[in-house]
Amino acid sequence: MEPSLARCGWRATARVRSAPVSNVPNPGAASGPAPSPPSGPGPLTPPADAAAPVRHPDAPAPGEPLGPHYEHCFGCGEAQPHGLRLRARAGEGVSITAEFTVGPDHQGAPGLAHGGVLATALDETLGSLNWLLRVVAVTGRLQTEFVRPVPVGTVLHLDARVTAVHRRKIYCTATGRLGGPEGPVAVRADALFVEVKVDHFIDNGRQEEIRAAMADPDQFRRVRAFEVNP
Ligand SMILES: CCCCC/C=C\C/C=C\C/C=C\C/C=C/CCCC(=O)SCCNC(=O)CCNC(=O)[C@H](O)C(C)(C)COP(=O)(O)OP(=O)(O)OC[C@H]1O[C@@H](n2cnc3c(N)ncnc32)[C@H](O)[C@@H]1OP(=O)(O)O
C-alpha cells in the first residue's frame, strides 16, 4: 500500500508566526482618531438610477454556442494551446453559461487550479455577456471570491448575468460550480465592464495582431456585428 502523504511528513504542523501589529505606519507620530473606512456603496454596486439590462434582438438564441470572439484569446481562443478554451452558450435573458475543463497546464499548486486562471475563467465568462447586449465592453473591475479548491480534471460550470446598466457601465456577476450546473459553488465574481468602441483595440493593440485580425474575414464579421449596434 502506498504510504500516505501524512506519513511521508507532508502534513504541515507549522503555523505562521505572528505578533501584535499596529495598523498605524508610525505609531509615535499618530495624532487624533484613525481615519474611518470608506462608507456607502462600492464601485460594484449599481447606482439607484441604473437600468435593467436589455437583451439585444439579434442576440444568439438561448442554448446557441457563442464561439471564440478572437482565435488567439487566452480565455476562449482555439489557436491558444495553453489557453482555457472556455466554451460559452447564450442563456435566457442577459445571461450565459460556460464550461472550462481544468487541465495540468492550469495548476497553481499540485493538482489544483491556479486562482488567477479561475479569475480568467470568470472574466471570460462575464466578457461573453457582450454577445447578448451586442456591445463591446472591457473589464474595468473584477472582484473574485474563491470558495472551494478546484482540482485538475474538474469541469467548472460557469454562469453569468448582467444585473444593471448605467451609461457605459455594465454590472454583472458570475458563479463557477464543480462538476455540474447544480454542483457546489467553487468561485464567484462581481464585475464592472465599461463599453468601448472598436477603436479601443485598434488604438491600443499591437499593430501586428490588429492587422492580422482585420485581415481575417471571420474576425472582421464579428467586429462589424458589434460596430453597427445602434
Ligand atoms: C481589431 C480586434 C478587435 C478585437 C475585439 C473583437 C471582438 C469583440 C467582440 C466581442 C467581445 C466578446 C467577448 C469579450 C470577452 C472578453 C473577456 C475578457 C475581458 C477582458 O479581459 S478586457 C481586458 C482587461 N481590461 C482592460 O484592458 C481595460 C483597461 N482599462 C481601460 O481601457 C479604461 O480604463 C476603461 C475603458 C475601462 C475606462 O476608460 P474610459 O476613459 O473609456 O472611461 P471613463 O474613465 O470615462 O469611465 C466611464 C465610466 O466608467 C467608470 N469606470 C471606468 N473604469 C472604472 C473602474 N475600473 N472601476 C469603476 N468604475 C470605472 C467611470 O467612473 C465612468 O463612470 P460614469 O459614467 O459614472 O462617470
From TrEMBL:
<dbReference type="GO" id="GO:0005737">
    <property type="term" value="C:cytoplasm"/>
</dbReference>
<dbReference type="GO" id="GO:0016020">
    <property type="term" value="C:membrane"/>
</dbReference>
<comment type="similarity">
    <text>Belongs to the THEM4/THEM5 thioesterase family.</text>
</comment>
<dbReference type="InterPro" id="IPR006683">
    <property type="entry name" value="Thioestr_dom"/>
</dbReference>
<keyword id="KW-0966">Cell projection</keyword>
<protein>
    <recommendedName>
        <fullName>Acyl-coenzyme A thioesterase THEM4</fullName>
        <ecNumber>3.1.2.2</ecNumber>
    </recommendedName>
</protein>
<feature type="domain" description="Thioesterase">
    <location>
        <begin position="111"/>
        <end position="177"/>
    </location>
</feature>
<keyword id="KW-0443">Lipid metabolism</keyword>
<keyword id="KW-0053">Apoptosis</keyword>
<dbReference type="InterPro" id="IPR029069">
    <property type="entry name" value="HotDog_dom_sf"/>
</dbReference>
<feature type="region of interest" description="Disordered">
    <location>
        <begin position="16"/>
        <end position="66"/>
    </location>
</feature>
<feature type="compositionally biased region" description="Pro residues">
    <location>
        <begin position="34"/>
        <end position="46"/>
    </location>
</feature>
<keyword id="KW-0378">Hydrolase</keyword>
<dbReference type="InterPro" id="IPR052365">
    <property type="entry name" value="THEM4/THEM5_acyl-CoA_thioest"/>
</dbReference>
<keyword id="KW-0809">Transit peptide</keyword>
<keyword id="KW-0276">Fatty acid metabolism</keyword>
<keyword id="KW-1003">Cell membrane</keyword>
<keyword id="KW-0472">Membrane</keyword>
<dbReference type="GO" id="GO:0006631">
    <property type="term" value="P:fatty acid metabolic process"/>
</dbReference>
<dbReference type="Pfam" id="PF03061">
    <property type="entry name" value="4HBT"/>
</dbReference>
<dbReference type="GO" id="GO:0016787">
    <property type="term" value="F:hydrolase activity"/>
</dbReference>
<keyword id="KW-0963">Cytoplasm</keyword>
